[in-house]
Amino acid sequence: MGTGSSKEATDGGGSEGNKDRTEDDDQAADGGQLYVSLKMENRKLTGDLVPHVYGSLPLVGSWDPSKALNMERESVSMWELSFVVPPNHETLDFKFLLKPKHSDAHCFVEEGPSRLLIGGALGEDARLALFRLDSGEILEYQVFAKADRVSPFDLAASWRAYQENFRPSAARWIPDVSINPAPQTGGENGSSAGLELDLEHYVVPAPSTSANSGLVYAANMTENPRSLISGSGGTSYSNKGMEVVVPDSSKAFQSSRMVESKSVGTFSPLQKQDSQRGLFVDRGVGSPRLVKSSSSNIFSTGLNLETTTKNSMPAAAGAVAAAAVADQMLGLKEDRHLAIVLVGLPARGKTFTAAKLTRYLRWLGHDTKHFNVGKYRRLKHGANQCADFFRADNPEGMEARNEVAALAFEDMLSWMQEGGQVGIFDATNSSKRRRNMLMKLAEGKCKIIFLETICNDVSIIERNIRLKIQQSPDYAEEPDFEAGLQDFKTRLANYEKDYEPVGEGSYIKMIDMVSGHGGQIQVNNISGYLPGRIVFFLVNTHLTPRPILLTRHGESQDNVRGRIGGDTAISERGELYSKKLANFVGKRLKSDRAASIWTSTLQRTILTATPIVGFPKIQWRALDEINAGVCDGMTYEEIKKNMPEEYESRKKDKLRYRYPRGESYLDVIQRLEPVIIELERQRAPVVVISHQAVLRALYAYFADRPLKEVPHIEMPLHTIIEIQMGVTGVQEKRYKLMD
């Protein structure tokens, strides 16, 4: 039930003849005008009947129903009318009525006496508004009234802002979550908007830097060993665009460092410029400025940061940046670097989990690398090791495996000393002896968290084993699949004999989590922002195969005009794309009615999704386009002409540049983290209809693209990017529905 405004406002109302007015009420009336909002709510569909208000001065000035003021739809069930009441007319006499949307011929006036609005409050309890229709049916509306005093200056300023920014919206009445229960028929599926029966007709090549287009063994995408050098007489091994020579195992090895590109995901808060130190200060508008300060040396000493090594700060904004600064200032030295050490039997999803976690942390801005001990083993001892090599009672095999594990861990520590933040150490690490060795190596250098993956589902284990035989380099030269399968099962049995579950130190146990059907996660001695985010991410990941479709909205009116931001409707070409998209989704997902459609809250995405029927539609504010701040609605030429400094700042660093009173790409990534978590958690297909900057950031996550590339990723209109999630990793396919 709606209520009036505060007691002071209610007592201060009344007609001009009211004798009970106080001095404070007179000052309130002189200092501002009443801004009144009337609302009516009916959760039942009322067809074309639109609520109206009519009554005395100054609201309407006539009891003629033809002059009644129509209320605006605020949501699917709520209607609203706002108006300003001058001080000398703070008592209003009015009624509600219902009128057909397209006709003034007949209306329905509410039952009962007229309503009194006194000083912004209803003069009685806000009774239901009852309307008796010709059929005898009675419609009930709940009535709400709210009033605020607004100064004439604020009122004028608000009106100017409203007039300058008003854009008619064709989508505001659509609720945040909706579903069209039945397919539509008719012209919407006409030939102009129709699609070929074979969707493959629309497939276009993905960029060369896209997500994996084929099956790729996850361990092959990990870091190249730095401790192992090329030698004569070895065999070549190619990975990640570089060739490494596998030396002859009979020859001694010399330690050296391979040339490696620097990470693009970190920056130091204390940079040298003109031999002076300064702080990056984010002014909240535009790009960060390097401010030189005489006190910066004191600040640097307080942080106790070594100037000889790169500082492990994430390329991030918001909570991630705040947590990193806090860890630098308050945390232990070794806590500035984190090692996630995988533990588990073979074929339990360790490498898959490590790859997903690496991709997530990189996307958030943490400099993260994935070190796979199996890759080191293959490079040093060859890929064709039989199951006996992995027996616990084989001293030569144990020594060789511990040696490559130590080499990989030392490489990870060396990388951390250069500024790396999170290392993912991927191996079985199934015995306490091995884990104790790693903890001793890490003392005073990094914090270790063990991540144990346990799977008791026989069908999942069998599937993983078969994938291992098909994809692992260990069996690349084994022509007999069954022989390879038997060898791997023997290797697995050798590991099971010596397996000791984690019970020491800080650890996370994932028990039967990979299926996505429940499971259990156990944590011990886990604290801090980053470990907490890791646990939250792992809780929501699974291996269930499902597609995620990413697409921009149909062409908008601002796209045609070359203006950024805004909230305009879609153009004629955009409407055509929305119909083609509806046909595509209907064909692609017809067998999976559990799919859902996600849009932003901006009308160009909502309108693009409108023709899609039969699936739930969910609006996310997090999917709104990057906030261009004061540049919203401008063209880039206008920004260049009127704000040349901002234009140049953006051109120099599009990733970190923040529009005045707006956002940067790093800000967008931070607000998209809940979207990523939910996409990982979903087990059914999802169609994401959003905007260029937002989709660049989402795509960068799935394709594992460096942060510096995010603002430059190609994201064309009227194109669908299908990301296939599953046990084999991430694959991509693109469909172009319109030129």
Poorly predicted regions:
1-30, 162-166, 182-191, 230-309
Q: Can you give the helix content as a percent range?
A: 25-40%
Task: Tell me the number of strands.
Answer: 30
The CA-CA distance between the termini, in Å, is 53 Å
Major sheet: arrangement of strands: 12-27-26-28-25-29-30-13
Mean pLDDT: 77
Compute the gyration radius: what is it?
32 Å
Q: Biggest sheet, open or closed, and with what strands and sense?
A: 8 strands, mixed
Q: Find the CATH superfamily of the largest domain.
A: P-loop containing nucleotide triphosphate hydrolases
Class of the largest domain in CATH? Alpha Beta
Strand content: 15-25%
- CATH architecture name of the largest domain: 3-Layer(aba) Sandwich
The tally of helices reads 19
Name the overall outline.
elongated
**How many domain units?**
3
Q: If you had to describe this structure to a student in words, what would you say it looks like?
A:
The chain has 3 domains: about 35-155, Sandwich (Immunoglobulin-like); about 335-540, Rossmann fold (3-Layer(aba) Sandwich), CATH 3.40.50.300; about 545-735, Rossmann fold (3-Layer(aba) Sandwich). The longest helix is centred in the middle third of the chain and has 23 residues, at about 395-415. It is elongated, with a radius of gyration of 32 Å. The strands form 6 sheets. An 8-stranded mixed sheet has the order 12-27-26-28-25-29-30-13, sandwiched between helices. The protein is about 30% helix and about 20% strand. Residues about 1-30, about 160-165, about 180-190 and about 230-310 have low confidence and may be disordered. The two termini are about 55 Å apart. The protein has about 750 residues and is α+β, with helices and mostly antiparallel strands. It has 19 helices and 30 strands. Strand 6 and strand 7 form a beta hairpin. About 35% of the residues are buried. GO terms for molecular function: 6-phosphofructo-2-kinase activity; ATP binding; fructose-2,6-bisphosphate 2-phosphatase activity; starch binding. InterPro entries: 6Pfruct_kin, 6Phosfructo_kin, Carb-bd-like_fold, CBM20, His_Pase_superF_clade-1, His_PPase_superfam, Ig-like_fold, P-loop_NTPase.
